Amino acid sequence: MNIIVTGGAGFIGSNFVFHMLKAHPDYRIICLDKLTYAGNLSTLEPVMDNPNFRFVKADICDKEAVDKLFAEEKPDIVVNFAAESHVDRSIENPQVFLETNILGTSVLMDASRKYGVKRYHQVSTDEVYGDLPLDRPDMFFTESTPIHTSSPYSSSKAGADLLVLAYYRTYGLPVTISRCSNNYGPYHFPEKLIPLMIIRALHDESLPVYGDGLNVRDWLYVEDHCKAIDLIIHEGKIGEVYNVGGHNEMANIDIVKLILKELGKSEDLITYVTDRKGHDRRYAIDPTKIHNELGWLPETKFADGIVKTIKWYLDNEAWWQPIVSGEYQNYYEKMYGDK
Ligand code: NAD
Ligand code: DAU
C-alpha cells in the first residue's frame, strides 16, 4: 500500500507518519510538504532512512510537482494534512489560507482522480461548525450541524470540505472527511496555546490569555486523532464525514493554570490581553458516529496526556529551541540542500 501524506512535517502529520510506519510496517509512506514556517524536517529525522519512507519538498498548489509525484508513486491513498492552520495568522493574512487550503485541495483531488486513487482523505476541523454557547453544555457538533464559520481559516477549511464532497458527487472520487477537535501532544508548533504557554512559562515570560480566558476547546491527544484517521481510511464509508473528539472540554484559563502548576510557576505570569477577533466561544464534538460505526474511542485521558506533553517539551528542548530562535528554517538547506 502506497500512501501520500501531505503536511507530514507539521504537528499532526508527523505524528501520523510515525503512527503509520509503526502500525503498518509493510506500507510505503510518502510525505509531501512545502516546509512552510510550520513544517520542520528535523521532526522527521528518525524516519528519513526508513526504506518505507520518502520525503518530497513540494507545494500542494504546484500542479506539476503533484502530478510528477503521483505518476512516480501511484498512491493507493492520499491523506491531506497540508494546510495553513493558525487562526490568528488567517486574521492577519487570509490569502495564503485560500490558496493552500482550498486550491491545494483541488490540485490533490485532480491528481487523485487522474491516477485512480482508491481513497482521498481530507483532514478537516471542528471549526467548520462555528461555535457553541457556553451556557448550553447539552449542545454538541454532530456531522449534520450546519457549516457556519467564523475566521478566514475555518472558512477556508469549510470551502475545502465542500469541494471534497462535490468531487465525490460529481466525479465519484472516493473521499472521506474527518473533523477533529483541538489536538495536543509532541511536535506541536509553539504558536499554539499549549506549547506556547509551556515554553513561555519555562522562560518566566508573561502568558497572553485572550479575552476573559473562558473560551472552551475540546482537547484530544494527537495519537488518538492519528488512530481515528487510520481507521477511517481503512474502514470508513466513502462519501462520509466523521467527527473526532474525546468529550474533553476545558476553558483556556484552566489549561494555563494547570501548566503553571505542573511547572511549579506562579499564576502571576498570566496576562489577559485583547481578545482574538471573532473568537469562537466553545467547541464540543459529538463523536458517536465514529464510535458506533468504527469502534473508535480515545485512549489517552487529558490528565495523563497533558503531563506527558509537558514532560515531552521539557525533554525535547533541542526540538523547540531552534524554532523559537528561527534556526530550524535553515535545516533543510543544511541537511538536504545538495542532495
Ligand atoms: P501544522 O501547521 O502544524 O502543519 C501544517 C503542515 O503543512 C506543515 O508541515 C507545512 O509545511 C505544511 N504545508 C503548509 N502549506 C503547504 C503547502 N502549500 N504545500 C505543502 N505543504 C504545506 O498543522 P497541524 O496542526 O498539524 O494540522 C494539520 C491538519 O489538521 C490541518 O489541515 C488542520 O486544519 C487540521 N486540524 C488541526 C487541528 C489541531 O488542533 N492542530 C485540529 C483539527 C484539524
Ligand atoms: O479546533 C481545531 C482547531 O484547533 C484547528 O483546526 C486549528 O488548526 C488549531 O490551530 C486549533 O485552533 P484554535 O484557535 O482553537 O487553537 P489555538 O491554540 O490558536 O488557541 C486555543 C485557544 O487559546 C483559543 O481559544 C485562543 C486561545 N489563545 C491562543 C493563543 C495562541 C490564547 O488565549 N492565547 C494565545 O496566545
How are the elements arranged and paired?
Layout: E1 2-6, H1 11-23, E2 28-33, E3 53-57, H2 63-73, E4 77-80, H3 87-92, H4 95-114, E5 119-125, H5 152-171, E6 175-180, E7 183-184, H6 193-202, E8 207-210, E9 216-218, E10 220-221, H7 222-235, E11 241-244, E12 249-251, H8 252-263, E13 270-273, H9 288-294, H10 302-315, H11 317-325, H12 331-336
Helix pairs in contact: 1-7, 2-4, 4-5, 6-8
The protein binds nicotinamide-adenine-dinucleotide and 2'deoxy-thymidine-5'-diphospho-alpha-D-glucose.
Nicotinamide-adenine-dinucleotide (NAD) is lined by residues 6-7, 9-13, 33-36, 38-39, 59-61, 81-85, 100, 104, 123, 125, 157, 180, 182-183, 189.
Give an overview of the whole structure.
By secondary structure, this protein is of the alpha/beta class. It has a single domain (2-188, 219-250, 279-300), classed as 3-Layer(aba) Sandwich (Rossmann fold), CATH 3.40.50.720. It contains twelve helices and 13 strands. The strands form four sheets. Strands 3-2-1-4-5-6-11 form a seven-stranded parallel beta sheet, sandwiched between helices. Strands 7-10 form a two-stranded parallel ribbon. It has a two-stranded parallel sheet with strand order 8-13. Helix 5 (152-171) links the parallel strand 5 (119-125) and strand 6 (175-180). Nicotinamide-adenine-dinucleotide binds at residues 6-7, 9-13, 33-36, 38-39, 59-61, 81-85, 100, 104, 123, 125, 157, 180, 182-183, 189.
